[in-house]
Amino acid sequence: MKLDLDPEYEAFRADVVEILSTNAHLAPGPEDKGYKNPKRIAWQKLLIRNGLAARTIPKEYGGYGAEPDILKARIIAAEFARTRIQGPMSGQGIAMLVPTLLELGTEEQKQAYIRPTIEGEMIWCQGYSEPGAGSDLAALRTAAVEDGDHYVINGSKIWTSTAKQADMIFCLVRTDPTAKKHEGITYITFPMTTPGIEIRPLVDMTGTANFNEVFFTDVRVPKSGVIYAPNKGWQVANATLTHERGMLGDPNATKARFLELVTLMKSESVNGQRLIDNPMLRDRLIKLQSEVYAMQANGLRIMTSRLKSESPGLAGLIVKLNGCDLNHEIARLAIDALGELGILYEEGEHLRSEGSWQWRYMYDLGLIIGGGTAQIQKNIIAERGLGMPREPKLAKA
Ligand SMILES: Cc1cc2nc3c(=O)[nH]c(=O)nc-3n(C[C@H](O)[C@H](O)[C@H](O)COP(=O)(O)OP(=O)(O)OC[C@H]3O[C@@H](n4cnc5c(N)ncnc54)[C@H](O)[C@@H]3O)c2cc1C
Q1: How far is the CA of 295 from the centre of ligand 1 (A)?
Q2: Topology of the domain comprising 249-385
Q3: Strands, DSSP E only, in 54-184?
Q4: Which residues line ligand 1 (CB under 6 A)?
Q5: What pLDDT sits at residue 25?
Q6: CA-nearest residue, atom 3 of ligand 1
Q7: How confident is the model at residue 3 (pLDDT cuts 50, 70, 90)?
Q8: pLDDT tens digits for range 259-277
Q9: 236 and which of 27, 187, 270, 386 could share a cystine (Cβ 3.0–4.6 Å)?
Q10: Ligand 1 centroid vs 371 CA: distance in angstroms?
């Protein structure tokens, strides 16, 4: 594998550095929180105009319209991580729905949804999980019954992140109860303001209601919201899940967190000794650093496969498990290194990094479950990546 960059790419890196340093003062800071924050939206639009966000999304859908070039994408991500300037927006709409629409949506759907989503003006939530249908997602029961050019939806979803803030949902519904369980599912989009939708927030262990229960009672939605085709939703759902797992295990995001941890351990001291000079903590930090580098190398492996138009295979399958575990370990070291300050959770003069490490420690544990649990990821790696036998099915009682 060739690791040094050609001059064309070094010149590209210089351009990225120039754009970021010229505009850094416009970047949102930690105080610019929340969805649809005007400063965050303005920054996202600036990044798109300059080819640093939505880079390969066609211009007619509001993107920058560049040819796919994985090396350039890596350079951009690496510069955001290095400079720690706020990077492009992500989330379920941008990282999961938009690539699915590009692959499988109609022209009308692409025109309607991609631009407002990538610009941060349209927020989406993912209606997959139900009570009794999480790891076994195809067991979902929320029913959609045809009524002319509409479906009428009844049922409920659970663990729906950002349902409260979302304008739209991409949702899995059962449209053919007589078909085999993977074959009667439809992937449909509709506004969260549709009458008959009730949202009940669920507080998770961060103390915040990051996800929700969503109930549907006679919710009438147009059939034009179906992505790809009725009863072909399982295929669409899996396309979205692949993008979700890539987003959750992004090696550049992990590297940025690792660098934040290094900064923390250099700036905080106990009894006059910097945390980074404590041999036990430094030992753990170095071990994590080697894992971060391994993840970056795995990212290069994936990139090399894609440049050759080959499937990344096992390298792609390990990303979610590896990335989510590593993010949690990084937060764990931050908490341990902060000692008694690491267990503070309320506002106060001793709180460090506004309590973000404590928050991440809890939230990242959830992400080991969300998007497919660690156990399910291990099954996938074993069966699809290593060719091991399928896990035995439980005998029916
Ligand atoms: C932070 C967070 C955000 C989420 N956001 C969303 C969202 O926006 N939209 C959405 O639809 N869902 C969301 N989810 C739900 C998530 O996808 C499910 O929690 C996940 O798929 C697991 O399903 P479950 O909770 O029903 O657990 P179950 O499937 O009941 O699993 C329970 C336990 O059994 C294990 N298990 C199950 N089957 C197997 C097996 N075959 N082999 C080995 N072990 C097994 C699991 O690993 C787990 O430990 C979110 C979850 C979290 C934690």
Answers
A1: 24
A2: Butyryl-CoA Dehydrogenase, subunit A; domain 3 (1.20.140)
A3: 124-127, 143-147, 150-157, 168-174
A4: 125-129, 134-135, 159-161, 211, 366-367, 369-373, 375-376, 379, 391
A5: 97
A6: 370
A7: low
A8: 999 999 999 999 999 999 9
A9: 187
A10: 7
Ligand 1 center from residue 397 Cα (angstroms)? 24
- Helix, strand or coil, per DSSP, at residue 126: strand
Q: 124-231, superfamily in CATH? A: Butyryl-CoA Dehydrogenase, subunit A, domain 2 (2.40.110.10)
User: How far apart (Å, rounded) are the C-alpha atoms in residues 159 and 113?
Assistant: 24
Which region among 104-108, 325-329, 349-353 has the lowest average model confidence (pLDDT)?
Answer: 349-353
Q: Nearest-5° angle of CA 39, CA 40, CA 45?
A: 100
Return the ligand 1 atom nearest residue 136 CA. 29
Gap from CA of 135 to ligand 1 centroid (Å): 5
- Ligand 1, atom 7, residue with closest C-alpha: 160
Q: How far is the CA of 181 from the centre of ligand 1 (A)?
A: 18
Percent of the chain with pLDDT over 70: 98
Q: How far is CA 37 from the centre of its chain?
A: 19
* Other beta carbons within 10 Å of 283: 10
Indicate which atom in ligand 1 lies nearest the CA of residue 379.
42
> What is the tens place of the pLDDT at every residue in 100-116?
999 999 999 999 999 99
The domain limits of the chain are 7-89, 124-231, 249-385
What CA dihedral angle connects 68, 72, 76 and 82, to 10 degrees?
150
| Average pLDDT estimate for 148-174 | 98
The closest-lying atom of ligand 1 relative to the alpha carbon of residue 157 is 11
What pLDDT does residue 140 have? 98
Enzyme catalytic residues: 244
